[in-house]
Amino acid sequence: MPxxxxxxxxxxxxxxxxxxxxxxxxxxxxxxxxxxRNEDVLERMEGVLQDISAWLQR
Length: 58
Prior knowledge:
Elements: E1 4-9, H1 16-28, E2 32-37, H2 38-43, H3 45-57
Parallel strand pairs: 1-2
């Protein structure tokens, strides 16, 4: 089972290009990446936890 990397990011942390490079690298190591915005974590934590749980069920 691949490991899961959970990234919590703000809108200005990284560019889409930087995110893509990082994701490609992590996936080359056999890791899966899921990202959430800060606002999602702060405003709908239960939903974020459900999403993470769903990823882990895959």
